[in-house]
Design the sequence.
C-alpha cells in the first residue's frame, strides 16, 4: 500500500464503489417508462452487441455490460501519462492485481491535474486525458457507462469489445501488450459486427476512418523513433532539448497538414492547441505499437478468434525478452 500511495488507492476504491453502486440492469432501464427513447434504443442495440460478442467473437459471457450506470459526468476517470523530459518511454506505476501500468487513473479531474502538475514540477512531460470506460478484468460486473454514450454507437460497441478483450488475456506489467491485444480484438470485432448487420456503407466508412487513424499513428511512430535515437545519442542535454522542440514542431506541422487534407475530420485539434510532448507519443505507442504484430498473429490463424486468443495466452506466458523480439517498436 505504501508503494502505491494509500490516498491514491482509497480514491480508486471509492470511485469503483460509486460506479458499482450506480449500476442498474439494462433490462430494467429499457422497461422503465421514464427512460428517454434515445437511451432505450442505444441500450437495446448494446444488448444485441453484447450477445454478439459472446456468440460470435468468443468473448466472455458473464454479467459485464448487462447493467447501466449513469455517472453524471463526462468521463469515468482521468488518466495521467508521463515520461522523463528526454525519453519516449512512459513512467510506470505498480498496483495490486494489474501489476505495473503506463498510466494512472483518477476519478476526479482535479486530482489527475494536480498529480500531472507535480510530475511536471519534477521535469517530466505529462498529459491528462478523459477516459470513457475501463476494465476491472472481470473482477466486477463492469457496466455500460453514461460516459461511453457520449460517442457514436459503433464506437461504443467497439469499446465494449475492447474492454471485454481484457478479460480474455491480460499480462500484468505489460500495458503495450494488453492494449494492443484489445485494440486488435476491437478492430476485428467491429468489422464483423457491421458485416453481420449488413451495413456495407458503415463498414466502408469504418475502413476509411481506420486508414486515417493509421496515418496519424504512423506519423507519431516515426517521430517517436527519431526522438528515441536523439535521446540515446551522446550529444549534450541542450542539443537534445533543441532537437526535441524541432521534432515536435515538425510533427505538429505534419498533423495540421493531415487534418487539413481530411477536411478537419482528424479529431486531434485539442492536441495541437495544447502542444505535443513525449507523453503523447508514449500514450499512442502503448495502444498501437504492437497492433500490427497481433493482427499478423490473427491472420496466421485464419482469422479464427478463439484460436487467436489461445495463441495470445501462450505468448503472454513466455519471457518478456521473447515478447519484445516478437513485437519490437512499430510491430
Sequence:
Amino acid at each position: 500500500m505504501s508503494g502505491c500511495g494509500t490516498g491514491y488507492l482509497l480514491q480508486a476504491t471509492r470511485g469503483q464503489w460509486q460506479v458499482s453502486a450506480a449500476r442498474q440492469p439494462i433490462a430494467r432501464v429499457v422497461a422503465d417508462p421514464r427512460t428517454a427513447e434515445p437511451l432505450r434504443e442505444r441500450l437495446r442495440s448494446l444488448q444485441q452487441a453484447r450477445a454478439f460478442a459472446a456468440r460470435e467473437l468468443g468473448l466472455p459471457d458473464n454479467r459485464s455490460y448487462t447493467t447501466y450506470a449513469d455517472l453524471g459526468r463526462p468521463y469515468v476517470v482521468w488518466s495521467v501519462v508521463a515520461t522523463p523530459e528526454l525519453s519516449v518511454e512512459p513512467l510506470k506505476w505498480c498496483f495490486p492485481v494489474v501489476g505495473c501500468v503506463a498510466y494512472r487513473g483518477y476519478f476526479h479531474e482535479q486530482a489527475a491535474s494536480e498529480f500531472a502538475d507535480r510530475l511536471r514540477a519534477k521535469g517530466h512531460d505529462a498529459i491528462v486525458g478523459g477516459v470513457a470506460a475501463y476494465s476491472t478484468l472481470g473482477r466486477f460486473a463492469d457496466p455500460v457507462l453514461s460516459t461511453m454514450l457520449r460517442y457514436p454507437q459503433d464506437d461504443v460497441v467497439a469499446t465494449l469489445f475492447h474492454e471485454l478483450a481484457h478479460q480474455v488475456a491480460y499480462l500484468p506489467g505489460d500495458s503495450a501488450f494488453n492494449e494492443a491485444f484489445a485494440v486488435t480484438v476491437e478492430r476485428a470485432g467491429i468489422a464483423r459486427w457491421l458485416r453481420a448487420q449488413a451495413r456495407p456503407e458503415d463498414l466502408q466508412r469504418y475502413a476509411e476512418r481506420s486508414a486515417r487513424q493509421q496515418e496519424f499513428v504512423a506519423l507519431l511512430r516515426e517521430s517517436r523513433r527519431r526522438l528515441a535515437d536523439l535521446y540515446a545519442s551522446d550529444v549534450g542535454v541542450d542539443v537534445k532539448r533543441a532537437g526535441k522542440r524541432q521534432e515536435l514542431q515538425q510533427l505538429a506541422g505534419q498533423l495540421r497538414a493531415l487534418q487539413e487534407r481530411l477536411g478537419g475530420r482528424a479529431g486531434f485539434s485539442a492536441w495541437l492547441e495544447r502542444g505535443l510532448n513525449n507523453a503523447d507519443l508514449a500514450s499512442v505507442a502503448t495502444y498501437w505499437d504492437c497492433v500490427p504484430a497481433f493482427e499478423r498473429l490473427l491472420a496466421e490463424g485464419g482469422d479464427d478468434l478463439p484460436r487467436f486468443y489461445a495463441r495470445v495466452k501462450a505468448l503472454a506466458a513466455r519471457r518478456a525478452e521473447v515478447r519484445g523480439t516478437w513485437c519490437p517498436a512499430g510491430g
Observations:
- The longest helix spans residues 200-232.
- DSSP finds 13 helices and eight strands in the chain.
- The two ends are 35 Å apart (CA to CA).
- The chain has a mean pLDDT of 92.
